[in-house]
Amino acid sequence: MEDLDYDHLLAQVMRYEGFRLRHYQDAGGNLSIARGTRHPQRPTIAAQDATTALEGDLRRIARQLESQLPAFGNLDPVRQRVLLHIAFNIGVGQLLKMRKFISAVALRHWSVAADEMLASEWGAEDKTRAQVLADMMRSGTDAKHKRESAAADHTQNDIVDLARRKGQPPT
């Protein structure tokens, strides 16, 4: 999964997951800390540790998707990010239960896959994220998401901050 831009993915996931440095109870009733990452043994976490933990979680999920969903490795980076977003949000197991969606992705029927995302239980629960990700799935681009993020001034700043923490020039 060399082509996947984890910094961009991290910024996108942070936009939806939020950022907390102390424990909180997530929507599923789980004790979580920092951007949806579950670490109940630690009461607080530094921002860099939170980013590192999130990236580790996303890389673990990507490996799971690569091993359990053969089509994943053949997708373009935008559509890989879509699947990672969903799997991060609901889990790989729940994602794989979205059989019509998975079939549409495997067949590269992007409009059908996007429609299935919106019609799913997950899509009904997280309408804003589902609509953005469905648009990304349908088009293979995230231009609309970038415009929305830039308008909210989240994603670009997060990418720059991530790059700065990693000692790399921002992308």
Would you kindly provide a written description of the structure presented here, covering whatever features stand out?
It is a single chain. This protein is mostly helical. It has helices at 6-17, 47-68, 77-90, 92-96, 99-106, 110-119, 121-125, 127-139, 143-152, 155-166, and strands at 24-25, 31-32. β1 (24-25) and β2 (31-32) form a beta hairpin. The longest helix is centred in the middle third of the chain and has 22 residues, at 47-68. The radius of gyration is 16 Å and the shape is globular. It starts with 5 loop residues before the first helix and ends in a 5-residue tail after the last helix. Residues 148-156 have low confidence and may be disordered.
Task: Briefly characterize the structure.
The chain is mainly alpha-helical and 171 residues long.
Low-confidence stretches: 148-156
Average pLDDT reading: 77
How many distinct beta strands? 2
Helix percentage range: 55-70%
Series of secondary-structure elements, N-terminal to C-terminal: HEEHHHHHHHHH
Shape: globular
End-to-end separation: 18 Å
Percent of residues in β-strands: under 5%
Helix/strand class: mainly alpha
The main sheet orders its strands as 1-2
Radius of gyration: 16 Å
